[in-house]
Amino acid sequence: MSLYSAGVEYGIHCLLFLVDELGESREASVRDLAELQGVPQEYLAKVFTKLAKARLVAATEGVRGGFKLARPSDEITVLDIVTAIDGRKSIFDCREIRGRCALFDGSPPSWALEGTCAIHATMMTAQKRMEDALAQQTILDLARRVGRKAPATFTTQVSGWIEGRRDNKGTIAVADISE
Question: Beta strands 67-69 and 57-59: pairing type?
Fold first, then answer.
């Protein structure tokens, strides 16, 4: 079972498509982003409602309206996106079982319950490190990483596809993307 929902994955991917090769924001509709990635449009619309509420994306007006980044791509962290979509999640829920040991016969000694549970403290350290790692990665960082991996034409093809959709032309050859 995953800690984070599919919406987190969809949201991060969508925000990557809202960043051009220079790290600047571009506009796209939820419908187009859903089609581009093969994900459910209705679910993605709910994700974008959460992203907009968190002020990570902003709606654009007009016939060609959609969404764009609400802040510079180097100021939107993966943790911002995760929190906007799934809220704050704890990776561990301490049940305080340390006082239930059968040897205590229902009356745990004070040493067994003093201070923070060592297991709980370990798990909280792990959560902090995970959140710190997510907070250190921005959408721009991820876009650059994808840009280094993808063929040089991919970003141009994505831009062309999105603009073609926005112009209701939809003309883009996708055969070159797989190279």
Answer: antiparallel
